[in-house]
Design a protein that fits this description.
This protein is α/β, with parallel strands linked by helices and 432 residues long. The protein contains eleven helices and 28 strands. The protein has a six-stranded mixed sheet. It has a five-stranded parallel sheet with strand order 13-20-14-15-16. It has a three-stranded antiparallel sheet with strand order 6-7-10, with no helix packed on it.
């Protein structure tokens, strides 16, 4: 009998967890064939990318090989970029793979599916701002985070060689004061301290000028005013300049121009404002999308126009009972993946599917080693404010829970011991 073929496109937090768990629930027992498709060969948890950009994290130590992970978790991995869906024939098209020299490694191909799950995440939304694509650095992928880190290191080296003569400052502008923007600012300050420790000691902290630019009336506009004010207090203490109610009109190579024609100097510009689903989703016919390209899904997470196509994570637009959309957070992707593990088992057996109910467990904002601020939400504590060491423990546990969902408790414990040992034997900052 031909196995039911489940194709998952996107190996992010939700997609890889879903493929892993379905591999054990269905693939291992030969009840379905699970295929994961991604454009990259390795996975790294997206909430860590700001640490990769600052050098606080060496991604080579935390990335997961899709091929190796698939082998041990009973699913198949296919490298490629999905560019179209043939809903009539139930196939997806993967584009040709081109090497850096322009040679074709593999021709375009088609993969058949019985059930298709799209978990392709989101990318930064530049809102059509002039010069953003050309001059700003984004943090949507490992490659982009590595590029930011290399730019940062070489800027510091340049400043190091000129400091004694010119005493120039390094100006970093961060456009967008969401979680990524404010966490990046704190990590950059810690990086400046570590760079001084490792020899760039003539680059003083007062030569690093970080400006966060936000169009809303507060930083962290998606979170509560209490968290926003607490984070603002800490960032101000660290020397970060915060500009709210400030809209960027143009990004140039050496500065930013705001809507009121104010110029803000920027040797490095990071764009962390807004997200949207990849543009190609809006071009796939017979699938309903919203204005930021998200696939509109029913409570079962099935797309509105095709019951064999599901969407989860940042690329899905799913309304809660209160009429608000499920927020684009890692915890939402995790919850949706957990539900689809049950849904796929039911679908394979021809049973009705459950509805998704999002549960907000709170938010935590890490200010590097300086502090963690946020809140936890549960039935017993509807809104428990957290800050300091306890908050830091909860923040670290978020990544460990992600690792447990992929590797299990025993292997995650080994990874924790490895990281503990590495912290004592390796540089505190990635210096290359």
């Amino acid at each position: 009998m031909k196995l039911h073929q489940i194709v998952i496109v996107g190996g992010g937090a939700g997609g890889l967890e879903l493929a892993t768990r379905l591999g054990h629930k269905l693939g291992k027992k030969q009840r379905a064939k699970i295929i994961l498709v991604d454009t990259k060969l390795t996975h790294i948890w997206k909430p860590l990318l700001h640490q990769v950009a600052s050098g606080a994290l060496n991604p080579a130590e935390d990335e997961i090989s899709y091929f190796a992970h698939a082998k041990t978790h009973h699913f198949e991995f296919q490298l490629g970029h999905m560019s179209d869906i043939n809903q009539k024939n139930k196939t997806i098209k993967l584009d040709s793979i081109i090497d850096p020299e322009g040679k074709v490694w593999t021709e375009s191909r088609h993969i058949a599916y019985d059930t298709l799950i799209l978990a392709i995440g989101s990318v930064s939304h530049d809102f059509g701002v002039v010069g953003a694509k050309e001059h700003a650095l984004f943090l949507d992928s490992r490659v982009q985070a590595d590029r930011f880190h290399q730019t940062l290191i070489y800027r510091y080296l340049k400043l190091h060689s000129e400091a004694a003569e010119t005493k120039k400052s390094l100006n970093i502008a961060i456009i967008g004061a969401g979680a990524t923007g404010v966490e990046l600012a704190a990590e950059l300050i810690r990086s400046s301290q570590q760079l001084a420790f490792y020899g760039l000691d003539d680059v003083q902290s007062d030569q690093l000028e970080i400006t966060i630019i936000e169009g809303a009336n507060q930083i962290l506009p998606a979170l509560s005013e209490r968290i926003s004010l607490a984070v603002k207090k800490h960032l101000t203490k660290l020397g970060v300049t915060l500009q709210t109610n400030c809209v960027v009109k143009e990004v140039q190579k050496t500065h930013i121009i705001t809507q009121d024609d104010t110029k803000i100097s920027a040797d490095i510009t990071a764009w962390t404002a807004g997200v949207k689903a990849p543009d190609f989703l809006s071009r796939i016919t017979e699938l309903e999308t919203n204005k930021i390209n998200q696939l509109i899904v029913k409570p079962t997470l099935q797309t509105t126009k095709n019951s064999d196509i599901f969407a989860i994570g940042d690329c899905a637009f799913c309304l809660q009972k209160n009429g608000k959309p499920v927020p684009p957070r890692a915890q939402a992707a995790h919850q949706q993946a957990s539900m689809l593990v049950k849904s796929m088992q039911k679908k394979v057996n021809g049973k009705s599917l459950p509805n998704f109910h999002y549960r907000d467990y709170g938010s935590l904002i890490s200010l590097s080693e300086f502090n963690v601020v946020g809140n936890l939400m549960s039935n017993l504590t509807p809104n428990l404010p957290l800050e300091g060491k306890l908050a830091k423990v909860f923040y670290v546990s978020l990544y460990r829970l992600h690792q447990i969902s992929l590797h299990g408790v025993f292997q995650t414990m080994i990874l924790i011991i490895r990281d503990w040992l590495a912290h004592r034997t390796k540089p505190r900052l990635k210096l290359h």
